Amino acid sequence: MYSQWNQIYSAFNPVAFEIFGISVHWYGIAYVLSLLVALYMAKRVIKKDPKRFPISNKNLESYFIWVEIGVILGARIGYIAIYDPHSLYYFTHPWQIFNPFDAQGDFVGIRGMSYHGALVGFLVASILFAYKKHQNFLLYMDLVAISVPLGYVFGRIGNFLNQELYGRPVPADAVWGQKIGILVGGVLRYPSQLIEAFLEGIVVFIIVMIAKKMLKTQGMLIVVYGISYAFMRFVAEFWRESDPQMGHYIFGLSMGQILSVVMMGVSLGLLFYIKKQKGQKNV
Hints:
Helix content is 63%, strand content 5%. By secondary structure, it is mainly alpha-helical. Strands 1-2 form a two-stranded antiparallel sheet. The longest helix is centred in the last third of the chain and has 28 residues.
């Protein structure tokens, strides 16, 4: 017998309300909340620790706009390049990439965003912003490492409410899984979105905040974030169903796990660079 929690999707509407015939999904609301939480955390950090983060509110707000544009472009293009089976069509018809209407003219929103694509877009926007403002790129990266994780929690909750990116089927003998599983199309699956919200959001935030007290070298917080997020995402993927068009690759790894390994490698590379720069200054 399934509990009310197991059957929550059957009683929950992903659409929060409609405005002039346009559906507003809970996912969209959660996405906006994630941005506001990230901005709030960033403002709080620069106010409480201005010596470590000498960034004005004006620059922060300007940076926020740059990054949001980079994240949206990167997330959408990254999804099309990595996950979408119709990537060739989109790249030959680029005006369709952000088309929120289907072939029948109905508003369906923009679906398909990649975290790792968003990360690339975010990095490009950050580099360009730091260059334009003549400020240290790593200064902003450390601020992001603190402000992003809690906002990320709302993003994953949005995935859960939107009934997407669901988990792998729960084995019949998995007692814990049977209790927390969600019925999706008659199959009991792990709520991987919530598992990711906890591991990649809350746990990573705690790790970064501990690192903030222990590590003072500029750039180290984004290194800690990159390594801890990559590890948590790698672990969470064991409960997440891989995209049907992707499947699994070498050693049975999902694309999310492969990209997490790449992310960890880049983070370690940045760590060695920071250590090298610090060593040169001490000579």
